[in-house]
Design brief:
Strand order of the largest sheet: 21-22-25-26-27-28-30-31
CATH topology of the largest domain: TIM Barrel
Shape: flat
Number of helices: 14
CATH superfamily of the largest domain: Glycosidases
Distance between the termini: 42 Å
Strand content: 25-35%
Largest sheet: 8 strands, parallel, barrel
Oligomer: single chain
């Protein structure tokens, strides 16, 4: 009953505050109204196959509906919230309409006239490769960097260990689904038309003689391109052995050399070509290859792809099993449509019917459709640039190898370019949590072996073994951070959730008894020092300076919400419930602060306490941090993290602002560490946009009007918890700035930016 009453009261406060804010908000709306809403074009003339972008101007934050009268003449696809890309289909005239709700619905129209395309005969360039019945005299190769091939288990690539879903929940669970529409980017139009007569005589002889005269390519249509054509005369041309297979150039090809595939021990072993970094996403490719085997009997081969999307591998067939007569060259052909998003793609020839050797020759890969236009992460105003001078950091959350919720964002170059454009900070979803570093499958090692690996074994450590720590992902993540120039929040050292149970048991074995407080104290020191030392040493090896990539650490997470489920083992099992004076929490900060001192970084890197529903437990958080810093020569806990998993309805701006005031009054840094705002039934994207604007304006106001004599730095960072709704842990609540993809900014994105501009 009390909780319901509190919610009703909070709602009344929110309504009251909304009324009080009406005047300034109306002023902003008045400015927007003075900017005339209009289409970028009132009429366009296009040729068949041509594409043009039409935008609705000065309509940010408003509801938009697009339609076209005669879809047979021209069609459109959305290109973000406020634009469409037209495609001319046949001769005729039609009308594109954009309806905008600006109080009332109003229509804006663009007349679209489509003309027939003019045929332009295209000369044959010297480097064009056309299908031929004869083997080329030399090789035209596009090379790709090879990557090490992991050995699959039982005929499959070894999957990554799945992560657990975060268990932290906001105070309310919105149920509304996102209203944003995913965007699909049409293919690009060729930007130049070659002259009919070449003006410069070619200096090289074409590698293959065309068997037919090329036909003219109408303007706007895609001309086929040769991706790779090779007879393996001079090398393996990027091919490597898949699994145990070995590849090498050999004689006995169809006319000269070929590629031999030997040493196969499993059916999936074969010759593999990695095309991840050079293939055109969304395009279709035709692949042809000649294969020969000499076992004396019929055998079967298969042309396949190895595709990794969101960390999940699949093995689509390009051409299913084909029977090879012994001693006879057989041509295998197939087509493959490349997905628009992936982290790995290879093509390979395998032998599903046996472990025999075979030969490969005269391989051709041809691009037959244009594919997706390259993603332009800089097409939108930068969030971090907009907030420069207000907050030191603006960040987001990323995953490197989590299988939960479409992770693996850090393995995508497009995603990281987007992150670099908009943010100067990021937080790892799972990879630095104790459950991952102390993973159950890592086992234990002796103390002497641990010392050789650089682990910190504290004085008085009485056990003969320590847990082996998993730094594989951490090291790769730091390398990526360095490559893209983005710094990281270290999250998290100590948590009642997502900590491996073995950490609390004798011998690091969950089947044994729980350890004593004295033993656990030493384990805390071993773990925190070793993790921080490893990270700082890795930073130094990458950049020459420790502390260059991780600028702060969340030491303890969500202590005020500590729980102890019967099925779990937590800190409470070892220490009991110590109220707001937990000795093991204070020890964690003492150890972490001292480790920073070992590197001379205690003044440069801040240790944070992080919590959720912080607006409900603000006083408890302040009391806890005061205990942590009690009796210390410096504030070893120097920052407070406000997670801020909130909704449009709760908490009220007043309640949230009161918590901010209490935290700023401590003199410590304050960061909003996990911001997402959910909507509920009956609420719209406009409601979400307005609340993002209100929250950010409140934070800006608190930052600008704080007592700088009490808190010199104030609010030093805001981190949005998710790149876009489709991969958010709160997906049904439409809680983020982007909808179905990085190319789908919502009204909330624009209101987030506008909050920082006066």
């Amino acid at each position: 009953m009390q909780k319901k009453q509190a919610k009703v009261f909070a709602g009344l406060l929110s309504m009251s505050l909304a009324v009080s804010l009406m005047t300034p908000l109306q002023g902003v709306s008045g400015q927007a109204a003075r900017r005339k809403i209009a289409l970028s074009k009132k009429s366009v003339t296009m040729t068949v196959g041509q594409k043009k972008t039409i935008r609705i101007k000065n309509a940010k934050g408003k509801r938009i509906k697009w339609s076209i009268k005669k879809k047979s003449i021209a069609s459109y696809k959305k290109s973000g919230k406020y634009a469409v890309k037209l495609t001319a289909k046949k001769k005729g005239t039609t009308t594109l309409t954009c309806k905008v709700k600006n109080g009332k619905w109003k229509s804006y129209r663009c007349k679209v006239k489509v003309k027939k395309a003019t045929l332009v005969r295209t000369p044959v360039a010297t480097n064009d490769v056309v299908k031929t019945t004869e083997k080329p005299s030399s090789t035209a190769v596009v090379t790709m960097p090879s990557v090490p091939t992991q050995t699959p288990t039982d005929g499959q690539d070894k999957p990554q260990e799945p992560e657990k879903t975060p268990t932290v929940k906001p105070t309310a669970t919105p149920t509304a689904k996102p209203t944003a529409t995913p965007t699909v980017t049409p293919t690009a139009k060729p930007t130049a038309t070659p002259t009919v007569t070449p003006t410069v005589k070619p200096t090289a002889t074409p590698t293959a003689k065309p068997t037919a005269t090329p036909t003219a390519t109408p303007a706007g249509e895609f001309a086929e391109k040769t991706y790779l054509s090779t007879g393996f005369e001079d090398g393996t041309d990027g091919f490597t052995g898949r699994g145990a297979a070995k590849v090498a150039v050999a004689s006995g090809g169809r006319s000269g050399n070929c590629l031999s595939v030997t040493g196969r021990t499993s059916t999936w072993n074969g010759a593999e070509l990695n095309v991840t970094d050079s293939i055109v996403k969304g395009a279709t490719y035709s692949i042809s290859v000649w294969v020969k085997q000499t076992t004396g009997s019929d055998q079967k081969v298969k042309l396949s792809a190895n595709l990794t999307v969101s960390g999940q591998s699949s093995y689509p067939a390009i051409k299913d099993e084909t029977t090879l007569k012994s001693g006879v060259w057989t041509k295998i052909e197939g087509t493959y449509e490349v997905p628009e998003s992936f982290s790995k793609l290879t093509f390979y020839v395998e032998g599903p019917s046996g472990n025999f050797d075979f030969l490969v020759d005269d391989l051709t890969i041809t691009q037959t459709t244009a594919g997706k236009e390259p993603f332009n992460p800089e097409g939108l105003t930068s969030i971090k640039d907009t907030y420069s001078g207000i907050f030191e950091r603006v960040g987001n959350v990323l995953s490197y190898n989590t299988s939960w919720n479409n992770g693996y964002q850090m393995q995508s170059d497009d995603t990281m370019k987007f992150v670099k454009h908009h943010f100067n900070s990021y937080t790892l979803e799972n990879e630095l949590k104790p459950e991952q570093v102390l993973s159950n499958w890592s086992g234990t090692i002796s103390v002497s072996e641990a010392k050789k690996l650089g682990y910190v074994i504290p004085d008085g450590y009485t056990e003969s073994t320590v847990a082996k720590l998993n730094f594989d992902s951490v090291d790769k993540i730091l390398e990526i951070a360095n490559n893209y120039g983005i710094q990281m929040r270290g999250h998290v050292m100590q948590w009642h959730q997502q900590t491996s149970p073995r950490f609390f048991h004798e011998g690091y074995d969950a089947n044994n008894d729980i350890v004593t407080k004295a033993v656990m104290d030493k384990r805390i020191e071993f773990y925190i020092r070793t993790v921080m030392k490893h990270v700082m040493d890795k930073e130094k090896s990458l950049t020459g300076k420790a502390g260059s990539l991780v600028y702060c650490w969340d030491i303890t997470n969500e202590y005020t919400h500590r729980t102890n489920k019967p099925s779990d083992t937590t800190w409470v099992d070892v220490y009991g419930d110590m109220g707001l004076k937990p000795t093991y929490v204070k020890k964690a900060y003492e150890v972490a602060y001292d480790e920073l001192k070992q590197y001379g970084l205690q003044k440069d890197i801040t240790l944070f306490y992080n919590d959720y529903n912080e607006y409900d437990v603000a006083d408890e958080i302040v009391e806890l941090i005061n205990y942590i810093n009690e009796g210390e020569e410096a504030k070893i806990c120097g920052g407070i993290g406000m997670q801020s998993h909130i909704t449009v309805n709760y908490p009220s701006l007043e309640k949230y602002g009161t918590a901010v005031d209490k935290f700023l009054a401590t003199g410590l840094q304050v960061q909003v560490t996990e911001l997402d705002i959910g909507i509920e039934d009956g609420q719209t994207e406009e409601d979400l946009a307005n609340h993002y604007s209100d929250i950010m304006k409140l934070l800006i106001s608190k930052q600008e009007n704080r007592d700088k004599s009490v808190n010199a730095r104030g609010i030093t960072g805001v981190t949005v918890w998710g790149l876009y709704d489709a991969i958010s842990w709160r997906k049904p609540t439409s809680c983020l700035l982007f909808g179905e993809s990085l190319e789908d900014p919502k009204p909330a994105f624009y209101s987030f930016l506008e909050a920082a501009t006066k």
